[in-house]
Amino acid sequence: MKREIYNQYKIEIVRMFRLKDGEILSKTKRRDIVDARNMLYYLCATRPMRVRDIQEYIKEDGHSIGHSSIVQGIKSMSDKVDNDKDYISIVKRIEGCVI
């Protein structure tokens, strides 16, 4: 069940950030892609999903990410959501698209 929610979040974030399918989990440090990836971590964590589960889903998608990188991404996005109304709006729209 949590895997399906992760997949739905990923699809909606890719669509909203106008990324290509595989870009969200790529190793790039391009700001738009990093923000999208951090948004994925943040939404999963607030669902709530354990960081270990998020890490496992990403591994199943053929990528690897460290536990601390996910935690840092969640913190980074949490700060943005707390301080930027645009991010609050994006979070609400994505959450509305997911069961």
TrEMBL record:
One of its GO terms (molecular function) is sequence-specific DNA binding. Gene3D superfamilies: 1.10.1750.10. This is Chromosomal replication initiator DnaA C-terminal domain-containing protein. It comes from marine sediment metagenome. The lineage of its organism: unclassified sequences, metagenomes, ecological metagenomes.
